[in-house]
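User: Fold this; tokens only.

Assistant: Input:
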Amino acid sequence: MSKKIRIGTRESQLALWQAERVKSLLGQQGAEAELVYIKSEGDLDLITPLYAMGVQGIFTKSLDQALLNNHIDLAVHSMKDVPVRLPIGLTEAAVLERDSPFDLLVPHPSKKNINLDTHPPVTIASSSLRRKAQWIHRFPEDQIEPIRGNVNTRLKKLEASKWWGAIFAAAGLERIGLRPANAIELDWMIPAPAQGAILIVCREKEEGLFELCQKINHESTAFCVKTERDFLAALLGGCSTPIGALAEMDGEEIFFRGNLLDTSGKKMYSIEKRISLELAASLGTAAAHELLSSGGNEIMEQKQHA
């Protein structure tokens, strides 16, 4: 392409890393790009827990609006923040190869030799309703307190606190070299759909840009996160519903795990499916319907009545 591509990004260190990664990959395809910085609603309100803000796409809406208004040509998102339905006029252009999808417990710097299975009642920090519900389901004696801000801010808040630890996405810490040596991977905690993946969005009918971005699309990652987001969509879930989903390639098969919890963490319905790739096109949707029919509809009905 002859003109310089304008890549929209938030201003946090992690968001800039992601946008620079996209810029570099496009550069390898011979395209010149520049970054355009845009603040999101989620960056402006650092107090209210995300699930209490009542808005889907809190970190993506401002970028998408800039894209629709032709202020930028591409938007780069952490895909777990993106609503399952994009605004009319926008389309998914590419999904980059996924980094770790898992969550980490980062203990307070003063805590050494932590044993999760035998710890006394403690206070953990997280503003994710999914993380809160799954943690309390496993450790019902613990307390969860909200924590907001970008990765750097939350690490500083943890250090200055009396919390036992805080929960972070592994990919976010690892991308910018901030994963503490004492961090513990929570492989039992099913991550948010598409966690660890980066999404590039462009305007519909921008065929040249779309085709360019498709050259850096990672097909297996795109397939897995589509399965997870299909599961989320079929459950009609958003940031106010504790839903986890993870699809992983295993040779010629795909292994899927999903769960749905009530907000208290007391009730959890889970599902696991292993299926050949050639039969997995509707795996996420089918898994969601199976989960609902096996008891998960109770949680969704309670949510609707509330």
